[in-house]
Amino acid sequence: MTHLDMFDSNPARGRAIHLIDVENLLGTSFVMTSAVAYLQTRYLEVVGIAPGDHVVLATGRRAALATWLGWKGGRKLLRGGVDGADRALLEVIEHEALDRRFPRVVLASGDGIFAEACARLRAEGCSVTVVARPDSLSRQLRLAAQDIRRLPLAPGTVRLPYAPEEAA
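Above: the chain's sequence. Below: its structure in token form.
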């Protein structure tokens, strides 16, 4: 089965916007290009991206280059600081009239900061799917979503083999 055969990729359901918090899905801001490429492969297997879907990737400064090189396609957003990627995606939700442009919103993050925005999108008539690592989905976000997809990642594929402070 290809990602185009997946339930969420069914063109009859309408096009979707995929809002992807790369660092959240990988569980770290210390990412490598190969980890981001692997993440894209796993995302396509679990969620699917149909022709006509829009993809928005957000990261902080530390993960930006690996994300830009590792994930093929999509709009890339960069925001520094605490919760920078989250704030960049929230701005897309708040200022880009997603409810009028997309019947489906796929949020790839487990952060509770998105719960209120997802609940609002559902109230406005959007179907909301949340994609998260099994160990990192906030309770509030789980309750705000219509559909939950777990994104299991193989151990050792997304983290550096040592802690960042050990590299110094």
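Strands lie at 16-21, 54-59, 75-78, 104-108, 127-132, 147-150.
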